[in-house]
Amino acid sequence: MTATDTTLLRSAIALAALARAHGNHPFGALLADSTGAVLLESENTVVTASDITGHAETNLMREAGRRFSADQLATCTLYTSTEPCPMCAGAIFWGNVGRVVYGLDQESLYSLTGDSPYALKLSCRKVFAHGTHAIEVLGPALEPEAATVHAGFWK
Questions:
Q1: Contact at 8 Å (CB) between 42 and 60?
Q2: Is 83 annotated in the active site?
Q3: How far apart are CA 93 and CA 90, in angstroms?
Q4: Residues 43, 57, 107, 145: which is the catalytic one?
Q5: Which of 17, 45, 64, 146 has minimal Cβ neighbours within 10 Å of its Cβ?
Q6: Whole-number Å distance between alpha carbons of 69 and 64
């Protein structure tokens, strides 16, 4: 990970804290171009928008698809506070984002959330591995920082 990766991942974690402060689940994501300039930011909106697909990464990809071409997105990095779930990984794949950097991995997240009938335990790497184009994935990274926004939320 580069210094830019670390800075932008911390920004995604800060977005997760904002999502929580706004009454949603603590997940945040941002999209940066190849120079590290932030193009878009997004929070989880599952609760406040009454939208079960309102994950931070999916919200981000909806807007990214409106604003940027697939060729532009191929040169971008999506930074996210937590490893993308299979739904979000699909949106990232279909949007043609070239790179993903995440904080907390799924296994660590599920250890915090406890038992849930809604756990879909499939890593983003496995989702991307079944695609027709490669997506570079870095993570987990900054896990203690990424876990902090979840403290006390899931119990």
A1: yes
A2: no
A3: 5
A4: 57
A5: 17
A6: 8
Which sign, positive or negative, has the C-alpha torsion 147, 37, 52, 95? negative
> Do 41 and 30 meet the contact criterion of CB atoms below 8 Å apart?
yes
Task: Provide the CB-side half-sphere exposure for 91 (13 A, CA).
Answer: 18
pLDDT tens digits, 100-142: 999 999 999 999 988 777 788 899 999 999 999 999 999 999 9
pTM: 0.96
CB 58 within 8 A of CB 91: yes
Segment 56-66, tens digit of pLDDT: 999 999 999 99
- pLDDT tens per residue across span 35-45: 999 999 999 99
Q: DSSP states of 112-135 as a string?
A: HH---TT-----HHHHHHTSSS--
- C-alpha distances (whole Å) from 38 to each of 5, 11, 28, 62, 79 are 12, 10, 13, 16, 10
Q: Residue 78 in 3-state DSSP?
A: strand
Other CB atoms within a 10 A radius of the CB of residue 2 amount to: 10
**Three-class secondary structure of residue 7 per DSSP:** helix
State how far the alpha carbon of 45 is from the alpha carbons of 16, 24, 29, 99, 141, in Å: 11, 6, 12, 23, 24
